[in-house]
Amino acid sequence: MKNKSFDMAISNFKYDSETGVFECYGNTKGNIDHAQDRTLDGAYADSISTHKAAGTMPKMYWNHRRDTSLPVGEWIDMREDSKGLWMKGKLSKSTLGSDIEILAKEGTLDSFSIGYRVDMEKWNALDKCNDLIKLDIIETSWVDAPCNEESRLVGIKSKLDDGELPSKRELQKFLCENGLSKRQSEKVTNKYNPDYVEKQNVFEMMSELS
To answer: Are 125 and 188 in contact (CB under 8 A)?
Structure first.
């Protein structure tokens, strides 16, 4: 067995300002990351069942405890569905938890990394990737530098699917991750206003870049 982390951008992030509870996808399945790993259907099922049977949940940290050994909140529910690993959590009112909450609401922080132990995996010679079949979820951290570019795309496209548009910051990040410099992306989005742009135009632009 080996311990690893899997960086993912937040997908379908929803935050309740009254309760402080948020929902997101910590992992989306089926895509290959930079480490050539791909999560398969059912990979989290056993770990989720084990946690729930024991009355436990993965820990919530900032950057896998590299900067602090304390949790920044708690996970209160999780499940695996057809899209990936859905999670519900709540940030603490600590200094770091409050800072993360502010940055997440602003769109500055938008990424998670799953810390897990590999219980079962198999090399896929056809797709040249390592298929993750069974994982033990240890913790899920907020991170500032994810490596999985496709998960960012899923996060923005999920907004379009829900009838929403990405913020200017999210669109700038997407453009930077698809070859534009920071200056170029800012120039492209200078006059972008989600309230006055057609959703289809944004979708077509992202499809052409990806």
So the answer is: no
CA distance 41 to 132: 9
Q: Whole-angstrom Cα distance, residue 52 to residue 10? A: 23
Q: How confident is the model at residue 72 (pLDDT cuts 50, 70, 90)?
A: very high
Half-sphere exposure at residue 167, Cβ-oriented, CA atoms within 13 angstroms: 11
CB 124 within 8 A of CB 131: yes
SS3 167: coil
Q: Tell which wins on pLDDT, 123 or 185.
A: 123
State the pTM of this model.
0.65
pLDDT tier at 101 (50, 70, 90 boundaries)?
confident
> What kind and span of H or E run contains 129?
strand 129-143
Q: Bridge partners of 113?
A: 7, 141
Residues 6+ apart with CB under 8 A from 91: 20, 22, 60, 72, 73, 97, 98, 100, 101
CA distances from 206 to 62, 88, 158 (A): 30, 28, 13
CA 45, CA 190: separation in Å to the nearest integer?
44
User: d(Cα 148, Cα 10) in Å, to the nearest integer?
Assistant: 11
Exposed e or buried b per residue across 138-152, where buried means at least 16 C-beta atoms within 10 angstroms of its C-beta = bbbbbbeebebbbbb
pLDDT tens column, 137-165: 999 888 876 544 444 444 555 555 566 66
